[in-house]
């Protein structure tokens, strides 16, 4: 069979094209097989490194395996930052398909990594956590990060010596109410009130503190937990106790209680009537204000609230006696009765002031009015503004001899004021404006010299950051001041 020249040329070209495409497919298949084998080796190396961190007996096997890594796998394992998609693909390709420019860049990178002696291959691919002596995993935010957080714990011994030598100061003993606090970067992270008991433990997310380690310690010291976190231990004040004690109903917050005491002008020796004992918060503030010579009559209509108020009052008296060595004055009489029908209870009583915390206070005003001294103040704690309107309407309609002097709300706004810090933890320094370049250079060097001394920068050379605290106390109640006038 004889073929013409054009047809023979086309047939040869087609055969050459088929052969070329077959060779290309074979070469691509070989490349894919090599990439699969290399990725399997890399995954097996990561798995062996993780097992070596969990089990010390397998550390020898992982070290032998790490010595067999190629330069390409070392480049992948030693990288600190995340790789881009282009870098991942180029690192997996064989060297014969890379351009000379890429190979040169890879060699330079390997030389830089070889010069860094602080990088370890087994620690870069697999993440791990540090463990304390008790086997509990430590988190980064649990450890002190600067010298400011370490100085209170280191100076605790000096504080103990000073506190123990002061007259009238007593050490912590069993039965006292204490406050445990932990602050991270001057921000409160943990606060808890507890009673010091034998063989008990203070548990938190920052570790455990046995109560026996706190017995005999001075108040206001730092105690390390089982995880090495310094917790500040101090005695609970009356404000702390009111805010952290067990509650039945809502309490009268300290900011409102202090304002009510100022409205009523309570002094030592006064006789005060309280209606609505609640959880006993206002009863404690009144008990402290009237002192040992005064008395407080507290009336509560609900039995569960009455029991809670009595229990909280007795718990505070017990803790105070252990703390000061003398008893808290037992000057509050609690009664579980309704003030509307308590005419027999009030018989013979005369009050300098009255504190009401009721849903409908205007209903009891005719009952308590005859027992209030002329010119005395009745302070009413009301949650809603509609209740304030009902109170004023009740006074107007009943023609009671009361003058409404004030209706206020007590806002409290916490602020955060802290020195400005740089990213490296050093203080920022205030620099005065410079008129010429030479004076500017001298001022910068002097500022750096001031930061190198033992006492830090000089006075008022550090800028401060001041802003409202992100957690604010919202509305609690309205305070109404009614004064009795002589009819």
Structure description:
- The protein is an alpha/beta fold.
- Helix content is 41%, strand content 19%.
- It has helices spanning 5-54, 59-67, 71-78, 85-92, 100-115, 121-124, 147-154, 156-165, 238-244, 254-264, 281-290, 303-324, 343-346, 365-368, 385-398, 437-451, and strands at residues 177-184, 187-195, 201-204, 207-210, 221-224, 230-235, 271-275, 295-300, 332-336, 351-356, 372-382, 402-408, 415-419, 464-468, 478-484.
- Strands 9-8-7-10-11-15-12 form a 7-stranded mixed beta sheet.
- Strand 8, helix 12 and strand 9 (332-336) form a beta-alpha-beta unit.
- The termini are far apart.
- Residues 51-77, 114-167 are annotated as: Disordered.
- Residues 246-480 form the tRNA (adenine(58)-N(1))-methyltransferase catalytic subunit TRM61 C-terminal domain.
- Its EC number is 2.1.1.220.
Low-confidence stretches: 39-71, 75-80, 116-164, 442-452
Q: How much helicity do the residues have?
A: 40-55%
Distance between the termini: 141 Å
Number of helices: 16
Q: Roughly what is the average pLDDT, rounded to an integer?
A: 76
Looking at the overall shape, the CATH architecture of the largest domain is: 3-Layer(aba) Sandwich
Strand content: 15-25%
Strands side by side in the biggest sheet: 9-8-7-10-11-15-12
Please state the structural category: alpha/beta
How many discrete structural domains? Answer: 4
Largest sheet: 7 strands, mixed
Q: In the CATH hierarchy, what is the superfamily of the largest domain?
A: Vaccinia Virus protein VP39
Pfam families: GCD14, TR61B_FKBP-like
Domain TR61B FKBP-like: 175-228
Protein name: tRNA (adenine(58)-N(1))-methyltransferase
EC number: 2.1.1.220
